[in-house]
Amino acid sequence: MSSRPAPVETYTLPRRSSPVALELLEEALARRLTGGELLLMFEEAALHDLGRTAHALRLQRCDPELVTYVVDRNVTYTNLCYVDCEFCAFNRHKGDGDAYWLSLDEIRAKVRSVFDAGGSQILLQGGHHPNEKIETYEAMLAALKAEFPSLWIHGFSPNEIQHFAKVSKLPTLEVTRRLQAAGLDSIPGGGAEILNDRVRTLLAPKKTTAREWIEIMEEAHYLGLPTTATMMFAHVETYPERIEHLLRLRESQDRTGGYTAFIPWTFQSGRTPLSRKPELMAPVEARGYLGAQDYLRTLAIARIALDNFANIQASWVTQGKSVGQLTLLFGANDLGSTMMEESVVSAAGTTHPLTQGDLQEMIRGAGFTPAQRDNGYRVLKVIGGD
Fold it and tell me: Which terminus of the chain has fewer CB atoms gathered within 10 Å of its CB, N or C?
């Protein structure tokens, strides 16, 4: 694995698509594009043409009338973490004044608030605690299921599972099996960042490699646990590395079919260690301010590339309400969670709190019908007009 920084590149976003890009966008409606062809989309396709193709594919691959969302809450059980990722402003070490480990009573109170708001799901995740073994997390899951039998627990990313395995001296498959038996219903795609080991060595050398992340997800699929997949971009990665990430996910989905959705979101630099390292920030700053263009282009290319993913989720958490609505015309068919609590992105200084009403307003304003789903992407309720 190389720890060399990415070459400092400036990106010129094309105002008009090249003839080759236009031809490939037309072909994308009928066939799978190769990695080289997808890279050409980044380099030579204009935003409006990408959006038109991505939207057409979105209408083909999932319900053309509905846009979904889930009512749930992020429950971050601890911010104690010694992985020290360069992009993270959230983690704390023992002895830090604002370090915490939630008690079971505190977690229960957060779960009750979800049911009070009309939901029955939580996203359960946290830092890499240096001492807690698998039994701690089994007890947490079992206690929540005992008190809230209908609760869907979407929890513990591949990086957490690998960490539990190391502390407990167990194989990751056994850890996942035990978490499932204790009450885990699905696994979030956190920690994917960019599935390229050069990038991962620069940003998070203590976390899973790209191969390990995929392997843990495929172990979950083997056990019947659905998972999502994410991508955090617009930092030290290059366009080819973004494409590598999408191809790894596409190939994994070909093997297992276990991913329910893909969620791309942009790096938020505020208060992060990366923001204080000029040698790492150089590739980020060299691009200049690309704003929503880069997010929408990448979202659209993801919809084109991931022909075996039905659901593409928009990140209004990082993009805000207006761009979040626009994503529904660039390939997204899901607005994610009401996010009653969010800790990681907000720690970097980005906050865009929205209610169910806000999400429904965004969906209707884009010409779709809102629908509430569960974390398995099953529609629970279609929301009629006022």
Answer: C
Let me know if residue 62 belongs to a domain: yes
Whether 315 is in a domain gets the answer yes
In a domain, 328, yes or no: yes
Per the DSSP assignment, residues forming a β-bridge with 152 are 121
In which order are the strands placed within the sheet that holds 259-266?
A: 227-233, 259-266, 311-312
**Which DSSP category does 14 fall into?**
-
Indicate the pLDDT class of residue 80, thresholds 50, 70 and 90: confident
| Strand ranges across the sheet with 152-155 | 72-76, 121-125, 152-155
Distance CA 187, CA 227 (A): 5
Assessment of whether the complete model's pTM goes beyond 0.70? yes
- Band (pLDDT 50/70/90 cuts) for residue 347 is very low
Total number of domains constituting the chain: 1
The whole-number pLDDT of residue 297 equals 96
- In 3D space, the residue among 4, 1, 344, 6 whose CA is nearest the CA of residue 206 turns out to be 1
Task: Determine the Cα–Cα distance for residues 311 and 313; give it in Å rounded to an integer.
Answer: 6
- Tell me how far apart the alpha carbons of residues 381 and 1 are, in angstroms, rounded to a whole number: 47
Distance between CA atoms of residues 184 and 4, nearest Å: 38
- List pLDDT tens digits, range 92-139: 777 777 888 899 999 999 999 999 888 889 999 988 888 899 999 999
**DSSP-based three-state secondary structure for 231:** strand
**Average pLDDT of 227-234?**
94
DSSP conformation letters of 272-304: -GGGG-HHHHHHHHHT---HHHHHHHHHHHHHH
Lowest mean pLDDT among 157-166, 183-192, 196-205: 196-205
- Tell which residue, 80, 12, 68, 55, has the closest CA to residue 371: 68
Would you say residue 244 lies in a domain?
Answer: yes
- With both helix axes pointing from N to C terminus, report the angle between 291-305 and 239-256 in degrees, rounded to the nearest 10: 30
361 Cβ partners below 8 Å, 6+ apart? Answer: none
Residue-range definition of the domain harbouring residue 101: 19-382
